[in-house]
User: Fold these one by one.
Assistant:
Number 1:
Amino acid sequence: MRLRAWTWSALVALALTRPAGAEPIEWSERYGDWTARCDRCAVYEEPICTLSIRSGDSRLWLFPVGGETEPHPEVAMEYLPSRPLAFETEGRLTVAVDGITIDRVDHPDVLFLAMSDDLYIEAPILAGLLPALRGGGILELTFADADGAATDSFPLAGFAEALDAMMGRLPIPRSTLEFMESATCMN
């Protein structure tokens, strides 16, 4: 029994040891109300890096698409409105910054994701919105469908810094990614 305990301890210590100067498995920093995070423990289709904010019952995530291993990936967005969404709902997302409408996004550019019950906004659409988000004070998202409409507000203080910090950590070399089942990710 003692031999097994010693062997287990040695294996865990070996698995948790990284070479000097190696990037940490997980990085997270707050910028205003926004959190920028990268986690190299790959979980199926989950993004490796995210930018997120919560406001009441609503949440917003931005993340690189097309692979974090690319030098300049596009950024997409998922939005969980504060009101429940009907399964496979279709509707219009109105995006306003500081009270000024900057875009109205219709299906199929805003999609309902059944696995997470939230809305996905395609990267090419979001690319046109990023300059306004960088310079704004308050982001308002209004999603309207057959069941009604609701507006959620998110402060933009710290958004530009958080986005720059997340994108500055890219690309993440594919050789440094870990699978969730690896000993490094199990701690």
Number 2:
Amino acid sequence: MRFNWKLLVSIGVFALCIAPTLVSYAPYSFRWDDSDYLWRSVAVSNAFWSGNAHDMRTAMVSFRPPVMTLLGLPWGPLASWDAAGKCFITLTAFTAFFVACCLFLLLRIGLKPLYLAIASVCVFAALGPYPAGGDAHFWAAAFVADSLFAWNAFAAMLLIPYEATNPTSSTTDALVRGILWAVIFSVGAITKVSFLYFIVLTIPILFVVSIRHSGVRSALLSLISLTICSFPVALYWLRYGQPVLSYGRAASFGPTAHFYYVPLSQFLGDTVRQSPGILLSAIFAIVSAAYLIVRRRDVAWGTNVLPLLSMLGYCAISLASSNREIRFLLPGIIGLPFLIGILISGKTPTFPRGPATIAAILVFCCLVAAAVPMSHRPNRQSIAISETVLAQAAESNAKRVLLATDSSTLNYPLMKVAIAVSPSRPPVEIIGLAWRTGPIEDDFRDIRESDLVVFQDEPDVPFTNKRMAEYEQYTRQHFGDVAIKVVDGIRIYGMSHN
């Protein structure tokens, strides 16, 4: 094979453009979702390495899929804040694996080097660190599942043109193809509930395309391989999936979503203002659409248009939700430029499997190497207030601490993180009153039964603190007006059980 320097350059551009969207060395402050992921990762790792199956299951199973709880497992028991920071490396390595998968699939599909480079630049412009302070880059490099989900979803979409351009030629190939499907769909299913969209939409299309290009026998073998390899994840969903589905529905189109409502026009305006590089993808899409209309109308009836339409459908559903955040659109921001490039590339020679595998492995290794210093990203100030509360709990010999307010600097997950990384692992039970909508008498009972009750001045989330005034009034009535400690904007009341 003749040396293709253009393709080599485009692969280099891909690596250089994608790396800054995933890798960041800026100090990272944990808040809500990310602190929940961190304490569960620490708890699962400690339970696994100590052989405590009950505690491991308790930490893994929640209203979110469990993949983020597994990030601490490679590092053994995590007994300190510095050790917990290693979870950043695991998350980036996990995401890098799917970045490498996507590169492999793109090369095997036959994406032209020029469009590989252009699409990579579009992703960098949208999710890179410039301009500083943009939400898009923050979420792309944050300790949340969204980047992993985005690259995973993109890999699922690439399976369709990959199947069309690389038919299986033997039983072994068909079984291995099914294993590839299982890895992508299984990991996606335990990453975010939104991935169910891609599972429901992609697998039937994939099966039909496989029948068309590889034959019924190969398609069935791949489907059987997929089914067998995905069985453990299917069992998880059958056993623990209902709370995840209920929360996903509530957070997207249910009552929880309305708390985060942002008008569509305001959301789009804020997104463009904070991350103007997204406009580059829009320009590329408009120019490509014009080219296709004028020169290549035939592609509208080809297989390669299906993943593009599927990704556009996902983006439309995300924008239709009341809960609009740029992180929910990461699959589209990442995938659409490449899918457009595939569409306008037409029928081009595919890159051989061996060199494509080597290129993907090299990119994966480079991303993982770049991620190693990320273990120092976690900012310990994230749990400073929580540690103050724990210190007071130790001084008061308190066993039950109740958080009467909720904020980005003091909340239930942050308290759990502080306990998990504390050298003494204090046996303190944490209870939170955030999000409660039941009878307030039940909340008053929890206040009476707690040893310490903690309030914070002006918490930054009004809708989770609607009962703050009633809680504090009742707390003062129960054990006096004077807090036993007032520091860093928090008031700690001690409960008497004489």
Number 3:
Amino acid sequence: MPEALQQQQAEASSEEMRAQLDSLRGEVERLRVANGELSQKASKRKAEAETLQASLTDAQAQLNTATSEVNRLTVEIPRKQFAEELSPYPDEFLEILSKDFSIDKKDGVLRFLTKAGEHVRDDKGSIIPLEAKAVSDFLSSRGAMGKNVYNALLIGSRATGSGGSPTATHRTQQTKPASPQFGLR
């Protein structure tokens, strides 16, 4: 009997093991299915991330383009126009000016600044406004080196010595054709 009991126990144990093995096989199959689903989701998410990254790159490029255009419109063009007011050689003027000063935005306004980004001040400590006359006077009053460099580039005066533009009465007198003289007088 002990042998029969052992055999029954072995068969019961074998049945139990088969049941556990079937259960584990079922679990492995469920895990394979879940793994496949997760792999598909991961691939899908990776594709979405790549799409988002491409969109982000495009948006960043558009932002850079817009920022450079805003800078061109709000800083570079006004800076160039200001230089044209001060000098018949605006590009050279800006190049020489950039060695000591800058004309840039500070607090949202175009200003005359030092290389350190601080407001340019005169000898009395007053801020030099970004106005043609004020900047021209300041640059002209600088030391011997400054006078030589900036005075050569600044417009000294807009006076031409021509007496100004003709008035309306002068124009009519100037444009009247001489009346032809026929016959003896």
